[in-house]
Fold this protein.
Amino acid sequence: MTREEIKQADNIVATKPRLLNDNTMHYCPGCSHGVVHKLVAEVIEEMGAEHIAIGIAPVGCAVMAYNYLDIDWIEAAHGRAPAIATAAKRLNPSRLVFTYQGDGDLAAIGTAETIHAANRGENIAIIFINNGIYGMTGGQMAPTTLEGQVTSTTPYGRRVELNGYPLKISELLAMLDGTCYVTRQSVHTAASVRKAKKALRKAFENSMAGRGTSVVEVVSTCNSGWKMTPAKANEWMEEHMFAKYPIGDLKDTTADQ
Amino acid sequence: MESITYMEDEVKLMKGNEAVAHAAIRYGVDGYFGYPITPQSEILETLEELMPWESTGMVVLQAESEIAAINMVYGGAATGKACMTSSSSPGISLKQEGISYIAAGELPALIVNCMRGGPGLGTIQPSQADYFQATKGGGHGDYHLIVLAPASVQEMADFVGLGFDLAFKYRNPVMMLADGIVGQMMEKVVLPPMRPRRTDEEIAQQCPWAVTGRPEGRKPNIMTTLELDPVAMERNNIRLQETYRRISENEVRFEEHCTDDCEYLIVAFGSVARICQKAMEEARERGLKVGILRPITLWPFPTEEVKRLSKKVKAILVVELNAGQMIEDVRLSLEDRVPVHHYGRMGGIVMDPADVLEALNNIIE
Amino acid sequence: MKEEIIIAGFGGQGVLSMGKILAYAGLMDGLEVTWMPAYGPEQRGGTANVTVILSDAPISSPVLNTYDTAVILNQQSLDKFESKVKPGGTLIYDPYSIHHAPTRTDIKIYPVDAMEATFELPSSKAYNMVLLGSLLKIRNLLPVEAVMKGLKKTLPERHHHLLPINKDAILKGMELPKP
């Protein structure tokens, strides 16, 4: 069979979403970003929302998310995505506005913007990739780095006396009256990918229905930063990350809606 | 006087800060994002009191910080909306990162700085010590803001519209560099007429770059200031510099008093120019031929006009509420052909006309 | 016509609003006006002052070093501004809160018992209006009608029922200065 013969329509069992373009992703093999990007593209496509979607990209590994999803984007200064999303949504209430942020962006430098956007109940969706490390700058400690975890700025492991505790920011956000839906997901198995997609869809629908702020945390791997094979990183995540950041809904005030 | 011809009800008495708020609504501004700081809090307070979201649909939001406020402006401006923020010196320092992004993104926006004395937390009294920050960059990277310096409550109102017109014309942020005097004083003002806010259709037409959600058939609009390829990044810089060149050629604004026969020239901006004007009046009564050049745009600076006037004066006195900042631009305009002196007060102390007169006498002697 | 006025006293005595009403009255009378407060913490309990300029020509500096008229409500302000009145100018003060009377002989000095007069009025808040009345009488700056118009502009509508009380206070103040 030639390559062209295989590509016949009858043979296709899976295809990438239309909104995900052909640009080569800069993400490391094994990284969770690619999967989440694909899910975001699928959900926007299925909602028929590409003409109203405005994504706010962070500073971090996903800084160039705008290169991969064919929707309109604003690239934010480090940590400021929720402030930018606030204005984009308030000035354009008919638009689907979401941020896509990492743990350093959302839970360190952008903590104030995150908490206050959520506390105002901005009708936006916040997608939060938590891999416990700064990927883009070369594996430094993040606010969500686990106790004892080795990074380039905690070469002997994160010490609570020095660095404080891993920050459970989603639990914090769930406490705020402005959030309607806070959930923690992962994308390391086929089943978890399906659940994460449902969560994203729900978050997007919440923001279009004006229910307040939705937060979808995706506990993710950074096999490069963690210095593990992708398979090993998944195992390590299940064993260590899930212990600190358990998967599941933290808050859902929209359950009946 | 022109203003007398207006109907009584159209002539208002208000503070410069209040005038900014009224003018913003009347211009059809889409979004204001602010954070309280003296001496400019009346802008946010007046907007909240006037509730423009009920009349024009304007969004007014008190942000959690100056940093959030400027990034809200960045976000709103990226969607093609007319957005503004205001603050005073320490808050403007916090906004510099966002201002650099707005300049890099070639986004129209208006930033009002009602200056107070610094450095640090400083004082809440008037100052002009942010001249360098406003005209030479402030944030990182090679960029310029168009800087307008109002000297009256009327100009604080008028420069909202002028500021946005210039910002959209050149796709470049504009700073209104006011101070605690014009912000806090009340005087007569004729507010600009009401204009409707632009519709989404007009924005899509006038701002094809705006991030509005991608209609079928158009490529994604991406507002980013990141460009890792140095060749492309240099190209971006060259494009910005070309914009600055066009602005410098076309948008220099200044005002002159009694410069036709002057032997001594005072250069001063904003409220200080008015203090100097009174000193000039008194000096002329004593037979001293004094004139005033008031730059209205601090960037672009009226270099050519300073040069022209310098050819006929014996000396120039630059008067500022700082230790000597605009004087550098005056000196650069002259190539040292004429002696240039500085008189300034700092830390929130405001000179009075007698102080200026004394400084003038000192240079004449 | 040009009148450069400083009004100075304690924060809370209505110094700023007295200046505001005066400025508005000037506006109603077709004059150019500026109102420049010493703002900030001074507004809250400390000393407060405001410079008001009324003129039939455009006004240059809103900041002044000397004044045609000073209206002084406390000792600190007298100490600060007595020397700043132009020769031949006018100093109006309320002896109620003054321990050391002004001493200059090259200016016209008018003590007015505004506080005492206010005690006889239904509201102590009208103190600044009494002083305003005295100022208007002494300097003959503006017609009372312009001042009432200015007052109406500065008072929120919900307080318009207080207009008659204020007018009474102004008229009372106009009776106080002794020729």
The radius of gyration of chain B is 21 Å. Residues 230-250 of chain B form the longest helix (21 residues).
